[in-house]
UniProtKB/TrEMBL annotation, chain A:
One of its GO terms (cellular component) is PCNA complex. GO terms for biological process: leading strand elongation; mismatch repair; regulation of DNA replication; translesion synthesis. Pfam families: PCNA_C, PCNA_N. SUPFAM superfamilies: DNA clamp. Keywords: DNA replication, DNA-binding, Nucleus. This is DNA sliding clamp PCNA. Residues 1-123 form the Proliferating cell nuclear antigen PCNA N-terminal domain. It comes from Oopsacas minuta. CDD domains: PCNA (cd00577). It is found in: Nucleus.
UniProtKB/TrEMBL annotation, chain B:
It comes from Oopsacas minuta. Manganese or magnesium. Binds 1 divalent metal ion per monomer in the absence of substrate. May bind a second metal ion after substrate binding. One of its GO terms (cellular component) is ribonuclease H2 complex. Its EC number is 3.1.26.4. Catalytic subunit of RNase HII, an endonuclease that specifically degrades the RNA of RNA:DNA hybrids. Participates in DNA replication, possibly by mediating the removal of lagging-strand Okazaki fragment RNA primers during DNA replication. Mediates the excision of single ribonucleotides from DNA:RNA duplexes. GO terms for molecular function: metal ion binding; RNA binding; RNA-DNA hybrid ribonuclease activity. Belongs to the RNase HII family. Eukaryotic subfamily. Residues 65-288 form the RNase H type-2 domain. It catalyses: Endonucleolytic cleavage to 5'-phosphomonoester. It holds the Pfam family RNase_HII. Gene3D superfamilies: Ribonuclease H-like superfamily/Ribonuclease H, Ribonuclease hii. Domain 2. Its cofactor is Mn(2+); Mg(2+). One of its GO terms (biological process) is mismatch repair. The lineage of its organism: Eukaryota, Metazoa, Porifera, Hexactinellida, Hexasterophora. This is Ribonuclease.
Length: 267, 327
């Protein structure tokens, strides 16, 4: 038997909308500690890692670890049938090939139940080691979204440079180029508006904007985004979901061939 | 020129013209089109280019007001060029023209067309003529370009170009008659706008069978079009088997040629109009091109950075029933 009720059901909607462009089919792994999901996009360039603690749910009951294979597209369709202030109960049993989604209106007057058929998904699971990052940037999530969106007007990829002076996003394409620089700013009135840079070592990395624009769909989940950089390693784009979990996106850096390097570094 | 004009005064009987025509045809086999093609042999015969062939205008066409006919041959076929013909003569000679037997080229036998072509050459002092050969390659390029130009627009522009060419020479035009391409009304409007009412323009359905001067233009076009197909020099260094046929997709010879000469790698030579759906369908049988997705090439896989993790067990519903996904 597995059952988890989330009072703020709209959170589910936001989570699914944030990940569905990246992972199509994924296993939702339910255990005593909570619900997690890991999945890659179809070209295996980006990875999503989601965890929601069991504390987030009331009640939360998980008799035995269970893996629920679901399609993000279908999940999104079902969740769109819920109202924003509905609570959402997810229920299934070991014997069943269904997962039930039960939406209950806040005044308990309306209850809807949708059953989704489970899929058997062979997913590769990657072990993500803890590592020391060269540079960690914490900034307003909507600011990061804006930067990615604006720069994708110019080019397909963004070059991100973190130095002690700040972080610089550059993109160029056939019509021209764009450069956005952010200085560390810790004096903003609102703590959420600050730009905070922890720097062990300066980094210069290039990423595909297409994926970053997928990731920033999660902006509504958290006011802040944490970007962790390490040379020749994937970027981590992390959204803390209140105090109940996290959604992390990993994106492999682009390898620049010698031609592009020559044009980007002045002689 | 003047001599030719004079001889037009004498009326031909049907018999005279066919005998004389045939004789000329035999002795001047190459001359018929040689006049059109004399500067376009061999290497210049590169069918990728359009040809504009306008023999000198008869002097009389500068002095007297002229009637002009324009018609085309080979709009529909999948093979070979589309040819536009233009003929013009003084309005006063319209009756002479009719008595010479000029009519819709489609209703005349090829031998009769050649004869009439011959007469036209003999009558160079009275009838002016010209053709524009639009190569199949040019038509393919127009129809498949990013900004596509459809065949109607190509046709309209060609007619406009040909009229302008006569104007530049100083031909005294009073009336232009054309066979319609697309809607007759809007075509007429377009032409009138282009030439600002300097002379009368009439677009008719089946103009080639109504007006001898348009019939003459259609003969010019048809003869040149047929000649092009019969004497096609393939730029491609390949021996193509069997007859081309008329080039129309309904022609069994053309069908056989298309089926028999498809190269799986290189497709068809330039004689084919690639914009035609017949051609596109045939080319589906050739090897398809796979374009490598460049975007993901320089993006390494995320797995290359992380080790394998612990794979969660499948849902018991599947494991208990030994359900597995195919490898």
């Amino acid at each position: 038997m597995f059952e988890a009720r989330l009072l703020n059901g709209s959170l589910w909607k936001k989570i699914i909308e944030s990940i569905k462009d990246v992972v199509e089919d994924a296993n939702w792994e339910c255990s005593g500690s909570g619900i997690s999901l890991q999945g890659m996009d179809s070209s295996h360039v980006a990875l999503v890692s989601l965890h929601l603690k069991s504390d987030a749910f009331d009640p939360y009951r998980c008799d035995r670890n269970i893996s629920l294979g679901l399609s993000s597209t279908n999940l999104s369709k079902i969740l769109k049938c819920s109202s924003n202030d509905d609570s959402v109960i997810i229920r299934t049993s070991e014997a069943s090939d269904n997962v039930s989604f039960i939406f209950e209106s806040s005044n308990s007057e309306k209850v809807s139940q949708f059953d989704l058929k489970l899929m058997n998904i062979d997913s590769e699971h990657l072990g993500i080691p803890d590592m020391e990052y060269d540079s960690i940037v914490k900034m307003p999530s909507n600011e990061f979204q804006r930067i990615c969106r604006d720069l994708s007007l110019l080019g397909e990829s963004v070059q991100i440079a973190c130095t002690k002076d700040g972080v610089q996003f550059t993109s160029s394409g056939s019509i021209g180029s764009g450069k956005i620089s952010l200085r560390p700013n810790i004096t903003a009135e609102n703590l959420d508006d600050t730009v905070n840079i922890e720097l062990n070592e300066a980094v210069l990395l290039t990423f595909a904007l297409r994926y970053l624009n997928f990731f920033t769909k999660a902006t509504s989940l958290a006011p802040r985004v944490i970007l962790s950089f390490k040379t020749e390693h994937p970027l981590v784009v992390e959204y803390q979901i209140q105090d109940i979990g996290y959604l992390k996106f990993y994106l492999a850096p682009k390898i620049e061939d010698d031609d592009t390097k020559q044009t980007t570094t002045p002689d | 020129m003047a001599a030719g004009y004079d001889s037009a005064e004498s009326n031909y009987t049907d018999d005279e013209c066919s005998t004389q025509g045939r004789d000329e045809l035999i002795s001047n086999q190459t001359n018929i089109l040689g006049e059109f093609y004399k500067n376009h042999r061999e290497e210049e015969y590169n069918r990728g280019h359009n040809l504009e062939l306008f023999p000198e205008s008869p002097d009389v066409t500068f002095k007297e007001s002229c009637i002009v006919g324009i018609d085309e041959a080979g709009r529909g076929p999948v093979l070979g060029p589309m040819v536009y013909g233009i003929c013009y003569c003084p309005v006063s000679k319209t009756d002479t023209l009719a008595s010479l037997g000029f009519a819709d080229s489609k209703e005349l036998k090829p031998s009769k067309r050649d004869t009439l072509m011959q007469i036209m050459i003999q009558q160079s002092g009275m009838i002016g003529r010209g053709v524009e050969v639009l190569s199949p390659n040019y038509i393919s390029n127009c129809m498949l370009a990013r900004d596509k130009i459809n065949l109607n627009v190509i046709s309209h522009n060609t007619a406009i170009r040909m009229i302008r060419r006569l104007l530049e020479r100083g031909v005294n035009i009073s009336l232009v008659l054309l066979d319609t391409v697309g809607d007759a009304k809007s075509y007429e409007k377009k032409l009138n706008k282009e030439f600002e009412g300097k002379f009368k323009i009439e677009v008719h359905i089946k103009a080639d069978s109504k007006f001898p001067i348009v019939g003459a233009a259609s003969i010019c076009a048809k003869v040149v079009r047929d000649w092009c197909l019969d004497n096609w020099v393939f730029k491609e260094n390949v021996n193509f088997t069997s007859k081309l046929g008329s080039g129309y997709t309904g022609d069994p010879n053309t069908k056989a040629w298309l089926s028999g000469n498809l190269d799986k790698v290189f497709g068809y030579p330039n004689i084919v109009r690639f914009g035609w759906s017949t051609c596109r369908k045939k080319l589906e049988k050739a090897y398809q091109v796979e374009w490598e997705d460049e975007e993901d090439n320089d993006n390494p896989k995320i797995e290359s950075f992380f080790g394998k993790g612990k794979v969660a067990k499948s849902h018991p519903f599947f494991t208990e029933r030994f359900l597995e996904n195919p490898k």
